[in-house]
Structure formats: C-alpha cells, structure tokens
Design goal:
The complex is a heterotetramer, with two copies of chain A (145 residues) and two copies of chain B (84 residues).
Chain A lengths: L8 E4 L5 H9 L7 E8 L3 E2 L2 E10 L3 H17 L3 E7 L1 E3 L4 E9 L2 H18 L2 E7 L2 E5 L4
Parallel strand pairs in A: 1-5
Antiparallel strand pairs in A: 2-7, 3-4, 4-6, 4-8, 5-7, 8-9
Helix pairs in contact in A: 2-3
Chain B lengths: L1 E5 L2 H6 L3 E4 L4 E3 H8 L4 H8 L4 E4 L2 E2 L5 E3 L3 E5 L8
Parallel strand pairs in B: 1-7
Antiparallel strand pairs in B: 1-2, 3-6, 4-5, 4-7
The chains are: A alpha+beta (145), B alpha+beta (84).
C-alpha cells in the first residue's frame, strides 16, 4: 500500500510520487473540481554558484506540528476540501523533488490561493534547514522569502 | 533537567546536538542563556538576548516565557525550505 | 515511450499521468526550482444538480493553436522556463482528470502566476465545450469564469 | 466554396456538423448569414448580427472581415472548459 494514505503531513527521506498524492486527495470528495500542486525541486544555481548537492535537516515533531498547523489553517481559511504537505530531508540531488503541496478545492481560485499561501508559510514557520554543497564547500542557507 | 537542542549551523558552533542543564524548577531564557554560555559564549548570548528564534516545547518562546524542569528548548536559526 | 515527450500541447481522449508530465518538464532545465500544476477534475455537483457524466468537444486545430498561443505567451510574459498544457475530450466520469497545466520556473512566484493565468485564458479563448449529463438529461454548459 | 462548421449546441440546431456555400470570390458575414439562414433562421441571425463568436480560418472574425472562397468559418458558442 502507498504511503500516501498514511498521513497528509509527512517529513521523509524517500521520494514521493505526485500522481499517488493527487489520487489520494481525490478520494476525499467527489466534489473536487480543481487541484493545485506546488513542487519544489533542487536548482543547480544559487546566487550565481553551482550547487552539486542539497541536504535538509529538520526539528523532528516540531516540523510536523507546524505543517499540520499550516494544513488546518489552509482548509479553514481558504475553504478548500483538503491539503497534503510532504517535505523531504537528507541528501537531495539537483532536479530531485524537495517539497510537495497539494491543495484540492471545489474550484480553482481557493486552491491556488491556499497552495501559494501554504508554501510561503512553510518557509516562514517550519523548522527545516538547508545545507548547500558547492565547489567552495558546504554552507547552511538562510531563507529567501 | 532542561534539554537544549542545537540545529543546522548552531550544531557546528556548539560542537554537539544538545545539552542538558539543571536549573531548578523554573527558570528564564536569560538564566538559561548564562548556562548555555558555558558551552559557547556565542550561543549563550543568542539565548540570553533572543537573537534567534527559540522554542520551548515546540512553541516559539517570548521574552517572558518561563522554562520548567523537563522542558525541551531549541535554538532555531533562520529556516530555509529550498530556494523556490 | 510516453506521449509526454511528443508535444507540450495536447488535446486527447486518453488520460494523462501528472508525474510523467512533471518529469518531462524537469528535463528542460537544471535550473527549475518551482513547478506549479493545475489539474481540473470532473465534479459531481453543478449548480445544485448531480452530474453523472461529462463530455468534451473541441474545434480541432483551432483549439491546439489557442493552447500553443497561451503556452508561448505564458513563457514570454511571466518568464517561466516551460509550460505543458493537456486537455482531454470525449466522455469523462466524475473524479477523472480533464485538464492539466504544468508551469515550471526558477522560483515559485512566476510559476504560480503563469499557471493561474493560463487556466483562466484557456477557459476564455480555447474552443472547447462541455456537455453535462444529469438525471434531467444532457445540456451544453456555458463558461463560468 | 465556404465551409461553415457548427459546434456544441449549434450542431443540434443545425441538425448537421457543417454546411458548404458557394458565394463567389469574396463575401461578408452578413451575406454568409443570409445563406446560413436557409439551413436555420436562428443560426443565420447569429452569423449576420454576430451574436456569437465566429472564426474565419481559426482566427476570430470582426465586423468587417472579408470571407474568401475556400475559407473555413466556424460558429463558436461560449466556451466551457470545465467548472473549476
């Protein structure tokens, strides 16, 4: 069985499959008309430097708690039907998936707003840190909004 | 005992992942900062003057947050969930 | 080989796989940091009526031409890296995929704006029509913005 | 010959998917509308008075669009790409 059904909030080392998460959220209601997905991936360039690898670390339990807060607030404030949030940790190569937010609504408008809000809020309040490896070595990165 | 956790770049500064301090039944961030200063003066100052975000039992602490015996405190450098 | 690589604009009867399209767009650049996807699905309720099936018809060639215009304008105006647009035609059941827009950018902001603009523009200028089947029979539906 | 295509609900009104009319080398929407009226007075009026969107060779037509022999005209009822 897919891990998609286990929890709508996950912080995990392994990759996720976007289609599986979308199919999981579709099962919640027959009245979903619009699903907006944000997928964050590892970029090669950061402030002009070539990155060879990313490494994510989180504060266990607190990070999950914050993601659950974001999910609940998104559902309540933007009247969407459901939301799934997944963030990977550990080593991530260029082009690989890092974070996924799936927002399902009756119509597209609320799903777009909820999804865009959720990724901004995730970056603002979730204790997850990124270390970039470049030819100059490794460095912990501070958030860019 | 109060557990103090260090994350990301702060782990490098502390040279460890966490510390434990016995500061009685109740204490303040100011007093905890003085204890942390024995591990690292830089980190101690961060706690005492709240130069970075600090959580107590996974909630963000304020200036007047009281820390109790058994609490888990964490020093949280600025978050960065990817450059998207 | 997946049909995903054949064209970035498709109108087709068969279903699509979101993950395949995302992987196809990822191959375009190693500098993609944010991918925003809109997936439109068949809703059961429409103006209080229970829908049992949807049926989409298009004006061949003109519909593809309009989707290509939308794709090119999105890339140019919003400075995204690439966009894929797929619309299904024919019979569609409740919960099934109808339309997919994938917008890939260096950062999330331009990908969100381009994706949201593209679906609104698709509904505005693309000659695709929907017939809803309810317990009262079949009816051609006019657009809701 | 000018081909006139009917889509969605208009196909039901016309009772067919397309018509062909021979109106010489050049004509107008007004004149084409009069020809279409022989198939259906309602559709004829739609074309003549431009009550709906009309395309000529897949570009949206304006009031003064000239239609040439061999052109493909289409009557396009309001689009509806799903209720999302």
């Amino acid at each position: 069985m897919s891990t998609a059904l286990e929890s709508k909030i996950r912080i995990q080392r392994e990759d996720f499959v976007v289609t599986d998460e979308i199919e999981a959220i579709k099962k919640v209601s027959r009245n979903i008309g619009g699903i907006v997905t944000f997928l964050g991936t590892g970029r090669e360039l950061s402030k002009g430097e070539n990155i060879t690898q990313l490494n994510f670390e989180h504060y266990p339990k607190m990070a999950e708690k914050k993601l659950e807060e974001i999910r609940e607030k998104a559902i309540q404030d933007y009247k969407i039907i459901d939301m799934i949030i997944i963030h990977r940790i550990g080593e991530i190569d260029i082009g690989e998936n890092i974070v996924l937010i799936v927002a399902a609504g009756e119509h597209r408008k609320e799903a777009f707003v909820a999804c865009e809000w959720a990724i901004a809020e995730l970056k603002r309040i979730t204790p997850i840190w990124k270390r970039e490896t470049t030819s100059n070595g490794e460095v912990w990165v501070q958030a860019t909004p | 005992m109060i557990t103090v956790k260090y994350f990301a770049s702060l782990k490098g500064i502390a040279g460890k992942e966490e510390d434990r301090f016995d500061l009685g039944g109740e204490t303040t961030l100011k007093k905890l900062g003085e204890a942390v200063a024995k591990t690292s003066p830089v980190l101690g100052e961060m706690v005492r003057d709240r130069k970075i975000m600090i959580s107590v039992n996974m909630d963000v602490a304020g200036d007047d947050t009281i820390i109790h015996d058994g609490d888990e405190v964490a020093l949280l450098p600025p978050f960065s969930g990817g450059s998207f």
